[in-house]
């Protein structure tokens, strides 16, 4: 049996404390993109770029462990849109991020390689910790958030997202979570929710923390009870958590979806006010260069019809270019548009008269700081927010999983098994799981 096989077997049989004394492997399998392939999609429109052609499963060396870091045996991971961007080399190849990071220090130079191990989510077990790590030890079952910061300057000490060396692990750094072993800073680690399987526990990470900061945190929209919250893509990876936070926090979600099936999922979560924009036929752009304000008005009227005449206090924005003009128009006077991601395009256009004359605010939000990530994971652990996992692939099928997300052919989150040989493993608290099983399975098979 290989070293990695021994580690896997020890964890599967419940002997997690043994992993610290087992020998470390010299290499592991990771999902990679290759620097010599960054031009492979040149000339193709984004929608025609196929992640199955650019994402590889390679045997790669285990990286050197540095101070304040941990090596984790990854049992499951998940697909985020940043993996899609990485796989299609947009908006720039991630090797530019790795090169820039590599110039920071001799230790950071490890990340500047001709291959990039991707992925910004994981659940697994700590294998080794570096010098200066006191809160975690080999054998601990963990999940990881994706905020990587140095915190050597003053800027990040009030809000770690403002650190001048803030990066997203597995996107702007190497050795990500779509692999059998991952390298993280130890302060990325959080306790694995005991009532969830490996694949369920891996799926909330990035999107759950992002939605928490964007909607709940004072650094985002600071949502309060009774707020009307317009949520784009309300059954998707990010929107499904925003819908849960709105309902859990006493707000009134207005869920925008693109099919009856997605509407049904939102209703299953408890949402009542739903707009199927495909059925309604909204076309916010007349052509590539010109938006249609009459469609904004028709959209706003639909929202008021559902809410009894109220406009949204908060617009949870992430599609970007396609919807942003409508979002700025739809927000109530004094309302807030909080934005991240821009999956339909980064260049936003809106009519500033609706912003400035109605005292609206646009807030940019990006992932979450350490505290926000911990709070978001705490809510998962308590069963107050649930994972939105719909489907799980094997590591060898990561290209197809990324293609699903790229083409919006998925619901909620798409998981990937790494060292977990099958789904359904890793549950430690069966009683809590039984209590919340319907919520946990809300997206299964969707």
- As a percent range, the share of helical residues equals 25-40%
Reported for the largest beta sheet, the result is: 7 strands, mixed
Number of helices: 16
Radius of gyration: 21 Å
| Portion in beta strands | 15-25%
Distance between the termini: 38 Å
Secondary-structure content class: alpha/beta
In the predicted model, the low-confidence regions spanning at least 5 consecutive residues are none
User: What kind of assembly state do the chains in view correspond to?
Assistant: single chain
Shape by Cα distribution: globular
Give a count of the beta strands, DSSP E runs of length 2 or more: 18
Mean pLDDT: 96
What does this 3D model show about the protein?
The chain is built from 16 helices and 18 strands. It is an alpha/beta fold.
At a glance:
This protein is an alpha/beta fold and 446 residues long. The protein has helices spanning 3-12, 51-54, 81-88, 95-102, 198-202, 205-216, 239-248, 260-269, 277-280, 293-307, 324-330, 352-356, 370-381, 398-406, 430-435, 437-440, and strands at residues 27-34, 56-61, 69-78, 115-117, 123-129, 141-144, 147-148, 167-168, 181-185, 189-191, 228-232, 252-257, 273-276, 314-317, 336-339, 361-364, 389-394, 413-417. Helix 6 packs across helix 7 (239-248).
Task: Set down the secondary structure blueprint.
Layout: H1 3-12, E1 27-34, H2 51-54, E2 56-61, E3 69-78, H3 81-88, H4 95-102, E4 115-117, E5 123-129, E6 141-144, E7 147-148, E8 167-168, E9 181-185, E10 189-191, H5 198-202, H6 205-216, E11 228-232, H7 239-248, E12 252-257, H8 260-269, E13 273-276, H9 277-280, H10 293-307, E14 314-317, H11 324-330, E15 336-339, H12 352-356, E16 361-364, H13 370-381, E17 389-394, H14 398-406, E18 413-417, H15 430-435, H16 437-440
Parallel strand pairs: 11-12, 11-14, 12-13, 14-15, 15-16, 17-18
Antiparallel strand pairs: 1-2, 1-4, 3-5, 3-9, 3-18, 5-6, 6-10, 7-8
Helix pairs in contact: 3-14, 6-7, 6-13, 10-11
